[in-house]
């Protein structure tokens, strides 16, 4: 795996060469927020930035997506038959996403692309997208990535990792996709050992600024004992089930499927959904297995921090990006919940 | 790569109104493309998404048995948007079926055992599939005694009445049909709730497995009765209902602890359920 230098003065040359082979997306300003959008020139990039408001997941799994289409015109021989609709999968580069988001994509891969079933749209977009991450020299106060198996310069899920040096970016290729991209790119120069040394120092310094939460005990806790813990009552007390956490979360993948009809044709679409909403689990009979707010709040945290770990022997399904901490209108903080779960002992004092 | 969200097109071949309240109808579907029928290989206990363009999809247990070929049968209770629309559809109409989905009753592993089937109300659908499968001549000899306890509110609310009557006549299956109350003076079977009849008939737990499917209240009171006669959490098999969308363990909706009911279930042993959150 190779490393090259992209001088800041040559960033537009680099971008121009990318644009000949890829659609380029990156963090751009949208109103007061930063979001992934088309990048044509270096000035479009909202640099420096901390993180995008919404995570990378919409690049692979849009908030609303047309799945199929159909005709409802009785005159039509195919009326009522649900059909695939053509979709385009251009080669894309996401330039400048944060390493935590790339790590999150790999956690969602386990769900979307499993041995038994593959989500065709997720898989196609993953195949045709190259991820160029930008390491975080200055993590935010809400970041806790190093506690969750990621880090400000984590390479998981990335094809190329950029480290910002004073006048340049050090670009380290991490996969064959990354090799190919850097080989074709213009505006690059050979990296020197001094560049690598500076990058390593920046990485170490950034990692040291991050808080360390203990998550080691989550794996060995008994799932049902955690489920039945009394602290969920306190955790859920202020929650208003707004669902902001689930929409911003890079590892929340739940969706709904709905049909929308206009005149004599219709679409089957899928939309992000949230376990925070009572309708999420409401049966046709009126029975609702997660009727109470405490059950829904518990579901979100247990799924990320216990069920995922137990199901896949991996995780937790949180990368410490801190978006939910920043956005929660009632200051529910997943870091506190992690500690509650990690330190939980049953009142009997047995191994919990 | 096939798209697992795309239904197979089917035509409604027959509609049978099953119950006196007309809320339960059995739909018989034939595939528009014969190749799709070949691809749709299923086992008793599995379900499928019935898919109606413009309305949506509903997860419904497959009531036909893999030993019956050329069609699929589903018995559907009229409850919401999609089921109400389906109840108003006609023979010849085209819609979709997506599946088969989920796991199944582990009948291959249960060969050599006695099978006790306990069902209530309109949850009898995949149990019908199971009974038809077990009674198939080449399958019947692989199993021991077969006992069925099936109850509905009234005689008119029983599903598959003709088949029940035919099974009553057979010597290779012990049928215990019951109703909560009989308003029909000619009613010649049991009267009483399913748990009470189960206790009365006390099927032996010796080398036996119980397959239980019914409303939550029936399950709640049947479980202790089965345990009293010697069934253990490992020999009680149940099927769960959940709100579902994708049916393939991806959309997250039916998550229960480490399991997705649509993909890892809907069939679980009581031993497995005892280690999962009771959020169903």
Mean pLDDT of chain A: 95
**Architecture of the largest domain in chain B, according to CATH?**
3-Layer(aba) Sandwich
Spatial strand arrangement across the major sheet of chain A: 3-2-6-7-8-9-1-10
H/E series of chain B: EEHEEEHEEHHEHEEHEHEEEEH
Unreliable segments of 5+ consecutive residues of chain A: none
The count of helical stretches of chain B stands at 8
- Sheet having the most strands of chain A: 8 strands, mixed
Strand content of chain B: 25-35%
- Helix and strand sequence of chain A: EHEEHEEEHHEEEHEHHHHEEHHH
| Number of separate helices of chain A | 12
CATH class of the largest domain in chain B: Alpha Beta
The outline of chain B comes out as globular
Shape of chain A: globular
What oligomeric state is this?
A: heterodimer
Strand content of chain A: 15-25%
Fraction of helical residues of chain B = 10-25%
Biggest sheet details of chain B: 7 strands, mixed
Query: How far is the N terminus from the C terminus of chain A?
Result: 44 Å
Task: Characterise this structure.
The complex is a heterodimer of chains A (352) and B (280). Helix content of chain A is 32%, strand content 20%. Chain A is built from twelve helices and twelve strands. The longest helix of chain A has 20 residues, at 293-312. Chain B has 280 residues and is α/β, with parallel strands linked by helices. Chain B folds into two domains: 8-101, Translation factors (Elongation Factor Tu (Ef-tu), domain 3), CATH 2.40.30.10; 107-239, Nucleotide-binding domain of ferredoxin-NADP reductase (FNR) module (Rossmann fold, 3-Layer(aba) Sandwich), CATH 3.40.50. Chain B has eight helices and 15 strands. In chain B, the strands form three sheets. Chain B has a seven-stranded mixed beta sheet with strand order 10-9-8-7-11-12-15, with helices on both faces. In chain B, strand 8, helix 5 and strand 9 form a beta-alpha-beta unit. At the A-B interface, strand 4, strand 5, helix 7, strand 11 and strand 12 of A face strand 4 and strand 6 of B.
């Amino acid at each position: 795996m190779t490393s090259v230098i992209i001088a800041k003065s040559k960033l537009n040359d680099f971008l121009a060469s990318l644009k000949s082979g890829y659609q380029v997306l990156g963090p751009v300003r949208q109103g007061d927020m930063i979001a992934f959008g088309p990048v044509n020139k270096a000035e479009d990039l909202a640099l420096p930035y901390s993180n995008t408001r919404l995570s990378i997941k919409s690049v692979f799994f849009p908030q609303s997506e047309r799945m199929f289409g159909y005709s409802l015109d009785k005159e039509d021989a195919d009326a009522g038959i649900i059909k695939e609709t053509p979709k385009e999968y251009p080669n894309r580069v996401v330039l400048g996403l944060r390493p935590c988001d790339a790590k999150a994509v790999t956690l969602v891969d386990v769900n979307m692309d499993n041995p038994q079933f593959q989500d065709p749209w997720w898989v196609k977009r993953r195949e045709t997208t190259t991820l160029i991450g930008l390491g975080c020299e200055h993590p935010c106060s809400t970041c806790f990535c190093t506690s969750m198996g990621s880090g400000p310069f984590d390479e998981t899920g990335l094809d190329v990792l950029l480290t910002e040096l004073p006048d340049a970016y050090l670009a380290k290729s991490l996969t064959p996709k990354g090799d190919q991209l850097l080989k074709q790119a213009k505006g690059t120069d050979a990296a020197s050992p001094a560049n690598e040394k500076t990058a390593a120092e920046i990485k170490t310094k950034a990692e040291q600024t991050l808080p360390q939460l203990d998550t080691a005990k989550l794996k060995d806790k008994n799932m049902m004992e955690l489920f039945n813990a009394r602290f969920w009552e306190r955790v859920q007390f202020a929650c208003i089930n707004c669902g902001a956490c689930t929409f911003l979360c890079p590892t929340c993948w739940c969706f709904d499927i709905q049909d929308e009809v206009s005149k004599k044709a219709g679409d089957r679409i899928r939309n992000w959904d949230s376990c925070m909403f009572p309708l999420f689990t409401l049966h046709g009979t009126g029975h609702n297995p997660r009727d109470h707010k405490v059950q829904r709040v518990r579901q979100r945290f247990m799924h990320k921090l216990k069920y995922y770990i137990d199901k896949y022997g991996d995780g937790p399904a949180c990368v410490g990006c801190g978006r939910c901490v920043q956005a929660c209108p009632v200051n529910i903080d997943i870091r506190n919940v992690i500690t509650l779960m990690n330190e939980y002992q049953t009142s009997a004092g047995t191994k919990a | 790569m096939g798209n697992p969200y795309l239904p197979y097109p089917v035509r409604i071949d027959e509609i049978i109104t099953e119950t006196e309240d007309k809320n339960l109808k059995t739909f018989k579907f034939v595939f528009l493309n014969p190749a799709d029928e070949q691809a749709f290989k299923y086992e008793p206990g599995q379900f499928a998404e019935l898919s109606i363009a413009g309305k949506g999809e509903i997860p419904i247990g497959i009531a036909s048995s893999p030993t019956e070929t050329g069609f699929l049968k589903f018995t559907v209770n009229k409850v919401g948007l999609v089921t109400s629309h389906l109840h108003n559809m006609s023979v010849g109409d085209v819609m979709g079926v997506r599946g088969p989905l989920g796991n199944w009753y582990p009948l291959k592993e249960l060969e050599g055992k006695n099978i006790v089937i306990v069902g209530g109300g309109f949850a009898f659908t995949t149990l019908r599939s199971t009974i038809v499968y077990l009674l198939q001549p080449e399958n019947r000899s692989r199993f021991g005694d077969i006992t069925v306890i099936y109850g509905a509110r009234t005689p008119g609310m029983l599903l598959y009445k003709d088949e029940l009557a035919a099974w009553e006549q057979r010597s290779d299956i012990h049928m215990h049909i019951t109703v909560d109350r009989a308003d029909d003076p000619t009613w010649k079977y049991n009267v009483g709730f399913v748990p009470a009849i189960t206790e009365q008939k006390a099927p032996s737990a010796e080398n036996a497995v119980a397959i239980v499917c019914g409303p939550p209240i029936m399950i709640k009171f049947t479980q202790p009765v089965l345990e009293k006669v010697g069934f253990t959490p490992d020999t009680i098999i149940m099927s769960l209902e959940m709100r579902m969308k994708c049916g393939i363990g991806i959309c997250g909706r039916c998550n229960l602890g480490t399991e997705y009911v649509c993909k890892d279930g809907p069939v679980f042993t009581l031993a497995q359920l005892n280690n999962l959150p009771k959020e169903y």
